[in-house]
Design goal:
The protein is an alpha+beta fold. The chain contains 13 helices and 20 strands.
Length: about 400
C-alpha cells in the first residue's frame, strides 16, 4: 500500500484523544479526530488513572505518561473505605497504601484533555463536526457530517457512548483546597499525604480526593434511584432538602461537609450512571468502538478512563503494525478478542461493587460482604499490561494467518 492508512476518530473526549496521542508516533498512519462540539473540551470534573492505566501509558510512550504530571495529577498515597452509618461508623472497612506500588492518580479531565491534544498537529483536529451517518463498504468508510462535508478513511473508531441500562445518580463538585479541608476535616484532606476516601452508608455514599497539584478537592455524593432504571434520562435535579435528608444521620463532620459544599444552593445538577449491556462484538469490518462507546460503565471501580487508556494501547499497537487495510481490519478483530472479555468483566464487577457500597434499604449495609472490599480491584490493577499487549500481537498474527490461508484456498 503506497499511501498512508487513513484513521478517523469520531469523538474528541478523553478516549478519542488518548487514542490520537498513541497513534501519533506512527508516520504511516494519517489520523484525524472529529468533535461535534465547537471546541475540544471535557464536561466532567476528574478521573482516576489507576496503576494498570499508568502502565499502559508507560508502554505507549514515556511522553504519554508525563502528560499526567503536566495536567496536575495528584498521586494518591492511599485509598480508604470507611463506615459512615450504623454500627461501627467511623471505622475503616478496608485500606491500601502506596507501599505496594502505584495506586491511582487523580487528574482534572479538562486539563488532561488539553495536554493530550497539545502536540497534535492542528490540521488533524476538526471541531464542529457532528457525525450524521456513515457509508461503509468492505475496505473504507465515508463519514457524513451535519454541515454537509464528508471524510473518507480506511478505519473508523468511535469512542462516544450510547445510552445503556441501570441507574443510580451522583452529584460532584470541585472545591478550593482550603474550603474543602475546612469542611471535611484537616486530617482527611491533606495534599502532603493525599488519600482517597470512600464513605459507605445505607443507600448513600461520599467520596473525596485531591487533584490539580493540590489546589482542588473533588467531593462526590451518590445514591440509588430504582425508579429510574427504565428511564432514558441522563440528568436529574437534586434539591438541597433531599441531600440533607440522605445524610441526616451520617457522621457529624460529613453531614457538615455535605451542607457546606452542596446545600448552599437550592438544588444541584446530578448525573445518572449508566452501563452498556454486553456487546457481541466491538468491531464491524473497518469500524470499531472503544471507550464508553464499547463499555460504558458505572463509576464504582473508577475504571472508565483506565479502560480507555488500555484500549488506546492495544489499538495503537495493532494499527501501528498494519500497512494495509486487510492488516488493519485484522488488528481490529484482534482488539475485539483481547479487550472485550476484560472490559465487560470490569463493567459487571463495577455494578456489583456499587450495590455493595450503597447498601440495601431493607437489610442495610452487609458488613460481611464489605470485608476485603479492595480485593475486588485486584484483577483490574494487577494485570500485566506488557503481557496483555503481547497477547494482542499474537492474536493479530493469528488473524493474518487465517487471511493468508483463506486467500490460498
Amino acid at each position: 500500500m503506497s499511501r498512508p492508512l487513513r484513521i478517523a476518530i469520531s469523538g474528541g473526549g478523553l478516549a478519542g484523544a488518548s487514542l490520537m496521542q498513541a497513534l501519533l508516533k506512527y508516520p504511516h498512519l494519517d489520523v484525524h479526530i472529529f468533535e461535534s462540539a465547537s471546541t475540544f473540551k471535557e464536561s466532567g470534573m476528574a478521573i482516576g488513572v489507576t496503576r494498570n492505566a499508568q502502565a499502559a501509558l508507560d508502554l505507549i510512550s514515556p511522553s504519554a505518561s508525563q502528560l499526567l504530571q503536566r495536567a496536575g495529577a495528584v498521586p494518591m498515597r492511599g485509598v480508604r473505605f470507611m463506615i459512615a452509618q450504623q454500627e461501627g461508623r467511623g471505622e475503616v472497612i478496608d485500606e491500601v497504601d502506596d507501599k505496594t506500588g502505584r495506586l491511582t492518580s487523580i487528574v482534572h479531565r479538562a486539563a488532561y484533555l488539553q495536554e493530550l491534544l497539545a502536540d497534535v498537529p492542528k490540521e488533524r483536529l476538526h471541531a464542529a463536526k457532528k457525525l450524521s451517518s456513515i457509508d461503509q463498504n468492505a475496505d473504507s468508510v465515508t463519514l457524513h457530517f451535519t454541515d454537509g462535508t464528508t471524510h473518507e478513511c480506511d478505519i473508523l473508531t468511535i469512542p462516544r457512548p450510547a445510552l445503556g441500562t441501570r441507574a443510580c445518580w451522583l452529584v460532584m463538585t470541585l472545591q478550593p483546597y482550603a474550603k474543602a479541608r475546612s469542611s471535611i476535616g484537616q486530617g482527611l484532606v491533606d495534599s502532603d499525604d493525599a488519600r482517597e476516601y470512600s464513605w459507605v452508608g445505607n443507600g448513600s455514599y461520599i467520596m473525596h480526593n485531591v487533584l490539580s497539584n493540590g489546589e482542588l478537592v473533588r467531593f462526590v455524593i451518590a445514591s440509588s434511584d430504582p425508579e429510574e432504571k427504565a428511564s432514558d434520562h441522563w440528568q436529574r435535579s437534586v434539591s438541597a432538602d433531599e441531600i440533607r435528608k440522605l445524610y441526616a444521620d451520617w457522621l457529624p463532620h460529613l453531614k457538615q461537609a455535605v451542607d457546606e459544599l452542596l446545600c448552599q444552593d437550592a438544588e444541584q445538577s446530578g448525573i445518572y450512571l449508566w452501563e452498556h449491556p454486553p456487546a457481541k462484538t466491538y468491531v464491524s469490518g473497518p469500524v470499531c468502538v472503544m471507550g464508553d462507546a464499547a463499555h460504558a460503565t458505572t463509576a464504582w471501580h473508577g475504571s472508565g478512563g483506565g479502560m480507555s487508556i488500555e484500549d488506546s494501547l492495544i489499538l495503537s499497537t495493532l494499527l501501528g503494525r498494519a500497512t494495509t487495510v486487510t492488516e488493519a481490519q485484522a488488528g481490529l478483530r484482534a482488539y475485539d478478542r483481547i479487550r472485550r472479555p476484560r472490559t465487560q468483566r470490569i463493567v459487571e464487577s463495577s455494578w456489583v461493587t456499587g450495590k455493595m457500597l450503597l447498601g440495601n434499604e431493607k437489610s442495610g449495609l452487609e458488613m460481611k460482604r464489605l470485608k476485603n472490599l479492595l480485593s475486588r480491584w485486584d484483577f483490574i490493577l494487577d494485570i500485566d499490561m506488557l503481557k496483555h499487549r503481547d497477547e494482542a500481537i499474537q492474536l493479530i498474527d493469528e488473524e493474518l494467518a487465517k487471511e493468508k490461508l483463506a486467500t490460498a484456498i
